[in-house]
Structures are given as C-alpha cells and as structure tokens.
Automatic annotation (TrEMBL), chain A:
Translocase is among the record's keywords: yes
Protein name: Oleandomycin transport system ATP-binding protein
NCBIfam families: drrA
Chief place of localization: membrane
Species classification: Bacteria, Bacillati, Actinomycetota, Actinomycetes, Geodermatophilales
Alphabetized UniProt keyword annotations: Antibiotic resistance, ATP-binding, Cell membrane, Membrane, Nucleotide-binding, Translocase, Transport
Gene3D superfamilies: P-loop containing nucleotide triphosphate hydrolases
Localisation: Cell membrane
Pfam families for this protein: ABC_tran
Domain of life: Bacteria
Keyword Cell membrane: yes
GO biological process, alphabetically ordered: daunorubicin transport; doxorubicin transport; response to antibiotic
From TrEMBL, chain B:
A GO molecular function held by the record: ABC-type transporter activity
Cellular component aspect of the GO annotation: ATP-binding cassette (ABC) transporter complex
Name this protein carries in UniProt: Transport permease protein
InterPro entries xrefs: ABC2_TM (IPR013525), ABC2_TM_bact-type (IPR047817), ABC_2_transport (IPR000412), Nod_factor_ABC_transporter (IPR051784)
PANTHER family: NODULATION PROTEIN J
Species name: Klenkia brasiliensis
PROSITE patterns: ABC_TM2
BP-aspect Gene Ontology terms: response to antibiotic
Subcellular location: Cell membrane; Membrane
Keywords: Antibiotic resistance, Cell membrane, Membrane, Transmembrane, Transmembrane helix, Transport
Family: Belongs to the ABC-2 integral membrane protein family.
Lipid bilayer topology: Multi-pass membrane protein
Ranges of residues in domain ABC transmembrane type-2: 40-267
Record flagged with keyword rRNA-binding: no
C-alpha cells in the first residue's frame, strides 16, 4: 500500500433488504487523511453503506477495499484498521465509562494496566473524566456520543466511520464533536462520516457524496456541488440608479432572460456558470456604466441538496418563482 | 496522548486460540458486571427452585409418596436439573436484547474472534446456574434433605449439571439469535423445555408412566442427567447415565454451536 492510495475505495456496492434496494451500485473513494461526507435524507442508504464498509454487512454486489484490505476476503484485517461509531450509540449502559473503554482495550489485546491507562487517556480527551465511574446509562446524549466516539478510538484506527455523529445533539455538543473530528484528522485519521446536515458536511468534509435512494447522485467538494447544481444568480448594481435601464437591457441581451430588480436597485438574473460575467462587464464598461456591485452568487448547499435529491419540502418559495 | 499506550503489544498474541479465550473472558466479565449492577436479574433463578420445591413437595408430595420427606429426597435431583433447564433460557433473551440495542455492532466491528461474544455469554451464565443450584440445595438442606454419598460426590453432581447446562445453553443461544423478538424467544424456549423437563424422571419414576411416555422418558437427555445427579447424591448407578449425559452434551455442542455461529453471522 502506498501512502497516496485511497484508504477507502468502493465500486458497485449493491445491497437489498428483501425488495428494498438500500444500495444500488455505489462507488466512492476516500483519499488518505481526508474526510468524506456522505450526505443524504433518511432512508438514502447511508447507514447501509457504513455497515457494509465496516464489515457488519456483506454486499450483494460490488466490493471495497478499506485500508488496503478487501472487505469480502479479509474482513478481519479491515476491522484491525477501522473504528466505528454507529448511528445509535452502542455504549453499554450498565457499564461505567471506564469499564466500557477498558473492555474494548482488553478485547483488542491490551494488558489490563494499559487498557486502563488508555481508557483514562481517552476519557480525559473527551472531557468525561468526572463521569468516568458512573454508569453510561446516566450520561446525557452528548456524553454518550462522546463515549461512543472514544470507544471507536481505543484501537487507534487508521480509518474512522461516523454514522450521523451529531444527530440529536444540541449545538454545543455538536461543535464539540466537530472539534474532535478535526483533531483526529490533524493527527492523520481518515474519516467517512454520514450526515443529514449540510452545514456539517460543509464544515468537516473535504469531499461530499450525495446519496439518494441507494445511489450516489452527486459527488464533489461543496463548492463544486454548488456550481454543478446551476441556478446561480448574476447580480448587478449600477452606481447611478439612472443607468439601471441600460443594465437591464445588457443582462437580457446576454442571458436571454428578463432580470428582476430589487428595492436597492440591484438587477439579478439566473445564469449557468460564471462565463457571462466577463461579457456583461465588457458591455457595461463600453457603455460607460459605473458599477457598485457585480457578482455571481452560488446557491446555498441546502438548495443544492434539495435540488439533487428532489425533496419537495425544502425548495423555498422565492427560488421556485425566480 | 502517547503512542506507547496506543500501540497494541506485539508480544502478547502468540497462539491464535489464546486471544479468543481472553476475549470471551472479557465479554463474560462484562455480563457479570451487569448482573452485579442489577441483582434482580438473578431473581428468576433464585426464586424458581424455592417455588418448585414448595409446590411439588407440599402439593403433590403427600399424594405421590405418602410422606413429603421421602418425596423431597427423591425430588431434589429432579428440581435441581429442572430449574437449571429453565435457567438456560435466559441467555436467549439476553442475547436478543443485546442485538436489538446495537451493542453487538461494536463487537462485530472489532478484530476479535467471531465466537467471543457468544462464548462470553455462555460462560457468564455460570453465575446464574450456580445461583440456582446453591439456592435449591440450601433450601432443601434446610427442609431436611441430606446427601448419602459424601460431599465430593455432591460436588461432582453439581459440576456435571453445570457442564450439561453450558452445553444446553447453546440451543438457546441459537434460538435467541434466530427468533426476532425477546418475547418470542421466551415462548419458543418454554415450548422446548416443558416436555423435556416434565417428561423425565424429575417428579416420578419411569415405571409409573404409560408405555409410550416411558419410551420418551427413558431416552430423554434430561432423565439421564437427573439419574446421574440422583446417583451421585443418593446412591444408585452413575456410570451409565453419566455416559449418556456426556454423549448428549457432546451432541448438543456439535449441532448447536455451528448453528448458533451461523445464525450470529447472519443476524445483524
Ligand atoms: N434491516 C433492515 N431491513 C429492511 N430494510 C432496511 C433495513 N435497514 C434499512 N432498511 C431500508 O433500507 C433503506 C436504506 O436505509 P439506511 O441505510 O438505514 O438509510 P439512511 O441511513 O440513509 O437513513 C431504507 O429504505 C430502509 O428502510
Ligand atoms: Mg442511517
């Protein structure tokens, strides 16, 4: 394995539960040391993908290599390289924080003292030292999540799977989990995380794949995705309001669409790509129109997401009209 | 965080079986911690021997044997085994719950022996079996029961029963992993256990039964175990029922360990 080969490389993963096609030919790649965000609505197949890649489920079709090992033929080697934090915290509620982590250290072959030291280390790193000797059943949602995360790190995994790590957390706990993920990535861990929150993918992920109904419907950085979804808006505001008719005329001439004007005298028109920007600028300069604003606004990741997954609920009214 | 603590020690895993044993013991420890935290989990195995003894000795005793003390003597080996049979079912319910809660997902994502969580569960159930037998013997002794064969033989009786229970528990491991809900596990468990425990020599001698039932009773593994325990506690033939018991135990292991492992691999 060379250092620059991807830590996760999946091709054509397919899996059905009865007649439900949970994964329908999924390809994805995670370069070493990066974070891949798997974004998708409920039921898109995110959890199934995580379970397949972490060897809990065997795919019906396709295969994947994780940390250089085939998930089908050498799952045990994959397990040695990964950490998994599932969608639902799998900490043992009857055990204390220390006991939960010590147990995993022992299972991984650490001698008793080393397992205890590792547990104490991780509990400190996740601000759980005060609660170390309390049953995990008494923990808050955020603490439980952090303990679950700590549990997946006992073995120092090279690749970490996080399935909706912040769903159901309050904003402060969410930021804490984000900080932990960033710290791990700084230390060289590669991460695949699933999320329903665009903000989370935007914050943490180097690359994003958008899942819908078991398929990858889009793939790229968050900027690339925003570009690809189109529906960018070209906005132009002349310095003198009297130049507005000229601006409107030029915009219509270049884009073929009728511009809208807002209260501040900004003319805006939907465009695809930024290429028109130069043309518009040239034409307006030739006509001697001074500008106080000229730019192409990308759609928010939210708009992209809902455009791609076709979820009707979140298309805002004003966008639909424009 | 220091790396020295984080790197697994390279010297420890020498033979491949040793880690598997260590892992199973670790998971057994987990279950024992849970029992210690919730002692009411042992309520069934503590009360059942007392309830069974009281019911059978005082309700049926007079009618069956004339004197309840004689019947108590006959009955103790039977109730010991019978309550043990019911105690083995708990493992199916516990495993089913663990899976439903997602705790096993973590174990399955770790590089540990596939068998470790199941073997760990079977090992930790020793606590339940020992509780059940201790309560029964203590209660019986309080009522006047005495072994005639000495303490070493009595200890052997307990060990044989314990070993058999651990082999039998694989049946319930399998059922617990195969049946969907914990409630259904209990239902299936009782269906399987009732004919075996009551169609045995636990309560009455085989000769008193109609012919067709005698055939079942005489070939019932539970009868062999009860006869072994009875021989070791009260005198009588031991070698033959013990051989049968060992044979049945081996058969149970040979059939249900692979079945349970296969169900575990499939069940998510
Ligand atoms: N154990 C299961 N049995 C049957 N269907 C399932 C099971 N798990 C998931 N599914 C179905 O598979 C699809 C993908 O589910 P999942 O991977 O959990 O999606 P996500 O994590 O993106 O919400 C959904 O339609 C879901 O209902
Ligand atoms: Mg999910």
């Amino acid at each position: 394995m060379t250092t620059d080969s991807p830590v996760i490389e999946a091709t054509g993963l397919g899996l059905s539960y009865g007649t439900t096609r949970a994964l329908d030919g999924v390809d994805l790649t995670v370069p070493a040391g990066t974070v891949l965000g798997v974004l998708g609505p409920n039921g898109a197949g995110k959890t199934t993908a995580v379970r397949v890649l972490s060897t809990l489920l065997r795919p019906d079709t396709g295969t994947a290599r994780v940390a250089g090992h085939d998930i089908r033929t050498d799952p045990q080697a994959v397990r040695r390289a990964i950490g998994l934090t599932g969608q639902y915290a799998s900490v043992d509620e009857d055990l204390t924080g220390t006991q939960n982590l010590t147990m995993i250290g022992r299972l991984l072959g650490l001698p008793r003292a080393a397992a205890r030291a590792r547990a104490a280390d991780l509990l400190a790193g996740f601000s759980l030292t005060d609660a170390a000797d309390r049953s995990a059943g008494t923990y808050s949602g955020g603490m439980r999540r952090r303990l679950d995360l700590a549990a997946s790190l006992v073995g120092r995994p090279q690749v970490l799977f996080l399935d909706e790590p912040t769903t159901g957390l309050d904003p402060r706990s969410r930021t804490e989990v984000w900080d932990v993920v960033r710290r791990l990535v700084d230390e060289g861990t590669s991460v695949l995380l699933t999320t329903q929150y665009l903000e989370e993918a935007d914050e943490l992920a180097d690359d994003i794949v958008v899942f819908d109904a078991g398929r990858v419907v889009a793939h790229g950085t968050s900027d690339e995705l925003k570009h690809r979804a189109g529906a960018q808006t070209l906005a132009v505001r002349p310095r003198e309001r009297s130049d507005l008719p000229v601006v409107l005329q030029v915009l219509e001439q270049v884009t073929g669409a009728a511009p809208a004007v807002d209260g501040q005298g900004t003319a805006s028109v939907p465009v695809r790509g930024e290429a028109v920007l130069g043309t518009v600028l040239d034409l307006l300069t030739t006509r001697g129109v001074g500008l106080s604003e000229l730019g192409v606004r990308l759609p928010s990741l939210d708009e992209v997401f809902f455009a791609l997954t076709g979820s009707p609920t979140a298309v805002p009214e004003k966008e639909a009209v424009a | 965080m220091t790396t020295a603590v984080l790197t697994p020690p390279p010297a420890v895993p020498t033979t491949p079986t040793l880690p598997a044993v260590q892992q199973a013991l670790t998971l057994a420890w987990r279950n024992v911690v849970k029992i210690r935290k919730q002692p009411e989990a042992l309520m069934d195995v503590s009360l059942q021997p007392i309830i069974f003894t009281v019911l059978f000795v005082f309700v049926f005793g007079g009618a069956i044997a004339g004197d309840w003390r004689d019947y108590l003597t006959y009955l103790v080996p039977g109730i010991l085994v019978q309550t043990l049979m019911f105690a083995t079912q708990g493992i199916g319910v516990a495993l089913n719950n663990d899976i439903a809660k997602g705790v096993f997902d973590r174990f399955r994502s770790l590089p540990i022996a596939r068998s470790a969580p199941l073997v760990g569960a079977v090992l930790s159930d020793v606590v339940r079996y020992v509780t059940s037998m201790t309560v029964l013997l203590a209660f019986a002794v309080a009522l006047g029961f005495r072994t005639t064969q000495g303490l070493p033989a009595a200890a052997l009786a307990v060990l044989v029963a314990l070993a058999f229970a651990m082999c039998l528990s694989w049946v319930f491991v399998w059922i617990g992993l195969t049946v969907r809900s914990a409630g259904a596990v209990q239902g299936v468990g009782f269906l399987a256990t009732f004919p075996l425990t009551f169609g045995s020599t636990a309560l009455v001698q085989a000769d008193t039964l109609p012919g067709w039932l005698q055939a079942f009773t005489r070939n019932n593994p539970v009868t062999h175990l009860i006869d072994t325990v009875r021989g070791l506690l009260l005198g009588g033939p031991v070698a033959e029922p013990l051989a049968w018991t060992a044979g049945w135990a081996a058969l149970l292991l040979a059939v249900f360990v692979p079945l349970a492992m296969r169900a575990y691999r499939r069940r998510v």
